[in-house]
From TrEMBL:
Residues 151-216 form the HTH luxR-type domain. Gene3D superfamilies: 3.40.50.2300. Pfam families: GerE, Response_reg. GO terms for biological process: phosphorelay signal transduction system; regulation of DNA-templated transcription. This is DNA-binding NarL/FixJ family response regulator. It comes from Longispora fulva. InterPro entries: CheY-like_superfamily, NreC/VraR/RcsB-like_REC, Sig_transdc_resp-reg_C-effctor, Sig_transdc_resp-reg_receiver, Tscrpt_reg_LuxR_C, WalR-like. The keyword Plastid does not apply. Keywords: DNA-binding, Phosphoprotein, Transcription, Transcription regulation. The modification 4-aspartylphosphate is found at residue 63. One of its GO terms (molecular function) is DNA binding.
Length: 224
């Protein structure tokens, strides 16, 4: 999502957490980055949706457990308005699944350090998906416990190139990294990613990465 107005060169962020001290800490960390501006703070999901609708930020940093409207439901309402970076804890797999289905662009553990938080916001603002490695392991383990994975025929609609791009997503690669490995332009990679998401009826590259892992799609190989 692109910011507008005089601060269009900055990554505009709305923070949503029901604990004022947590919001203050997040704001302090993010405001220290020269390319990030915290434009609003919300204490619950309803307020987060209202603020994001009014302010059109690039990223909403969203807590999960909040009054009135939780972070999962709020994430679903923000589709097309802002990209959502969900803050979670390692033992809340069910919330991660909910946020994934709602179309969250990234998942980060709450105990991530300042550099990790700033880097995650930048990645999400660029349209790159992000799942904290510990969250990724939990997701894969939970998928492995499910009795019936989705049919591999879901991939039949993809071209050979699109399958290669999906392999890149499975490996957590950025568009630039996928393009470099496939010897195609980053802009072309972005088009392929969009087509993969459309054909698989997915809302984010994070969903694509998890689906690829679930279907056994190998990460993109490194060619010499």
């Amino acid at each position: 999502m692109a910011g507008t107005g005089p601060a269009a060169d900055l990554i505009r962020v709305v923070l949503a957490d029901d604990q004022p001290a947590v919001r203050a800490g997040l704001a302090l960390v993010l405001s220290a980055a020269p390319d990030i501006e915290v434009v609003g703070e919300a204490g619950d999901g309803e307020e987060a949706v209202a603020l994001a609708t009014r302010l059109s930020p690039d990223v909403v940093v969203m807590d999960v457990r909040m009054p009135r409207l939780d972070g999962i439901a709020a994430t679903g309402r923000l589709a097309g308005i802002a990209d959502v970076l969900v803050l979670t804890t390692f033992d809340l797999d069910e919330y991660v699944f909910g946020a994934l289905r709602a179309g969250a662009a990234g998942f980060l553990l709450k105990d991530t350090d300042a550099d990790g938080l700033i880097g995650a916001v930048r990645l999400v603002a660029r349209g790159e998906g992000l799942i904290d490695p510990q969250v990724t392991r939990a997701l894969i383990a939970a998928f492995a416990r499910r009795p019936a994975p989705p049919p591999s025929t879901a991939l039949d609609a993809l071209t050979v190139r699109e399958r290669e791009v999906l392999s890149g997503l499975a490996g957590g690669l950025s568009n630039a990294e996928i393009g470099a490995r496939l010897a195609i332009a980053e802009a072309t990679t972005k088009v392929h990613v969009s087509r993969v998401l459309a054909k698989l009826a997915l809302r984010s590259r994070v969903q694509a990465a998890v689906l690829a892992r679930e279907l056994g799609v190998p990460p993109l190989a490194i060619h010499p």
